[in-house]
TrEMBL record:
Record gene name: radA
Residues involved in ATP binding: 95-102
Protein name: DNA repair protein RadA
Record InterPro entries: AAA+_ATPase, DNA_repair_RadA, KaiC-like_dom, P-loop_NTPase, RecA_ATP-bd, Ribosomal_Su5_D2-typ_SF, Ribsml_uS5_D2-typ_fold_subgr, Rubredoxin_2
Family: Belongs to the RecA family. RadA subfamily.
CDD domains in UniProt: RadA_SMS_N (cd01121)
Name of a matching Pfam family: Zn_ribbon_LapB
Species annotation: Candidatus Woesebacteria bacterium GW2011_GWE1_45_18
Amino acid sequence: MAKAHSQYVCQQCGYSQVGWAGKCPNCNSWGSLVETLMATGEGRKGKTKGQKKAEPISLTAIPFKRTSRLSTKISELDRVLGGGLVPGQVVLIAGEPGIGKSTILLQLADKIGKTLYVSGEESAVQVKVRADRLGIKSKTLKFLEETDVDTIVDSFDGPSLVVIDSIQTMTTDDLSGLAGSVGQVRECAFRLLKRAKEGNIPLFMVGHVTKEGTVAGPAVLAHIVDTVLWFEGDKSLTLRLLRAVKNRFGPTDEVGIFEMEDRGLLPLTNAEKIFLTKARAEVPGSVVSSILQGTRPLLVEIQSLVVPTKMAFPKRVAQGVDARRLEMLLAVLIRRCGLPLYEYDVFVNVAGGIKVVEPAADLAIILSIASSFFDKPVAKNIMALGEVGLLGEVREVVAEEKRVKEAKRLGFTHPVTQKEIKYVKEVVKKLLR
């Protein structure tokens, strides 16, 4: 059997050397030398006599096999994964510190049953404190406080699920680099993935993020796993969004919505209770719109406040809305509708802490600003939906019928879309003047 030793290999030109240096002596690239395991011994000499030769087969000759799935018993997590976990599926879950990664994985471990929870960051006592707070008392949940990946791989004794928290703390003695280095993260991830595939064991790995908001470590980490999940949300609010950035066994356009409470992360099947004010009154500056989160339409409340400015340059403050988009919509109101907003400070907020990134809420933003300017409320059964162009025209948005249907189900019986209104000036005149 061939032995292995570590060498530093340049990721730019492939040059290898025994010791590490800041700059590759071959291509002069800084920081491109990564510690890598190199096999030694005799190379491959070709096929021996009688050994079967690999041959390609036709696509139509490949037999169809339906993928069996294991439900996580967390409805929103199942939605993001595409219906549940696949045997041998390796999932990387990333997000900012304190966003809820360890919490949801501890809840998942409790619901799955026979789980091996490996922690390289927290001690057993710290995890026990969190488990008591979440009300988890499972006797089939096994905890391992270890960072050596080879010891961890040997501890895979038929669990239904394995959780690694986190991959940046794992190391192998075959490499001399520190935990979290490119070589260590890559090699440890490969060994864990290989063991999970061999035993058909679903495996979750927690990944750190950089200050730029990307997964820490080599880019190959996101490539070798089957699924990459990303946690989003403001830690000062209770809302949490779980997005599938990559998924080999399901769609990448689904989003799971959770609410953080003392009992942990709770799935939200009726998310509108966060984004819509209870018993909404007809108040100037409040208009409801519909946005898509994955394939699911969500109703959100756009709130605006327009006040006379006392400064040479009026304020434009946006929370949950792109500031440049707001400036464009204000220009449309000034030019196409004749509103003198250059003399007023404008504040726009999306209730519930969610961010609106699609143009479908343009019409609602314009209506809420105009409503606040005229100090005249929009009827509470109205839902505004449409993209607004620079000419003041209202355009159709993606999945408009689906959004309107959901709005009517929740009591918004009068949707305002491009089917009823062609230009912004018409809707402002019709509803507010």
